[in-house]
Amino acid sequence: AMLRLRLLTWDVKDTLLRLRQPVGESYAAEARAHGVQVQPETLSRSFREAYGAQSRRFPNYGRSQGLSSQQWWVEVVKQTFRLSGMHEDGVVTLMAENLYRDFCSAHNWEVLPGASETLSQCCQRGFRMGVISNFDNRLEKVLSQCNLRHHFEFILTSEDTGFTKPDGRIFEKALRLGGVHPEQAAHVGDDYIRDYRAARAVGMHGFLLRAPRQSPEPEVPPEHILPTLSHLLTRVEK
């Protein structure tokens, strides 16, 4: 059965873009530039702890608590350095502001294999396209810098909308913007709960990007699994 799809929505992180190197490596390089040696593994561990605590305390970049995502992130980075044993506040603040700026750019992000080609082919086939991402408002700039922005009619971030996937309201907003019924739309992402299951819950089709080595989720039929993005068009045009 040919899917009568008109709109494709996309997750970004680990679907279209990935970090060029682990967070700890980027943070360690910034520390070295200020004459401080810290192990990348230590920084990665501290980052996970700081990010987790901040996310629980101020969900979705503190949007409903009056924070900007810049304030939110700068605090995560400062706390990462503090947990790694650095307490010189002036240097820590400077490094945090530098890192916030660097993560806006293609300097820290790379396009996943097959992503550009797949997006171009989807546009050529006449699909309308949008992004649905639990990202802050830097996403527009990151996508532009990575030369992907032009593929999309709209970019919905959790910071802008106030809804975080798997909340169905961010998907419903995308359907309104695309002017389509849920069954005319499919969402592509790498997270079973936030992408695949959330899209299916509002009646959209879902495709789950899954590296072959990852164990498949039992409820996902094989035709909904994408071993790589290049498999998407054959699935959609079945």
From TrEMBL:
Check the record and name the SUPFAM superfamilies matching this protein. HAD-like (SSF56784)
UniProt-listed CDD domains = HAD_dREG-2_like
Matches recorded under Gene3D superfamilies: HAD superfamily/HAD-like, Haloacid dehalogenase-like hydrolase
InterPro entries given in the database record: HAD-like_hydrolase_domain, HAD-like_sf, HAD-SF_hydro_IA, HAD-SF_hydro_IA_REG-2-like, HAD-SF_hydro_IA_REG-2-like_cap, HAD_sf
Q: Name one GO cellular component term.
A: nucleus
List the PANTHER family hit by this protein, alphabetically. HALOACID DEHALOGENASE-LIKE HYDROLASE DOMAIN-CONTAINING PROTEIN 3, PTHR46191
Protein name, entry field: Haloacid dehalogenase-like hydrolase domain-containing protein 3
What organism is recorded for this protein?
A: Himantopus himantopus
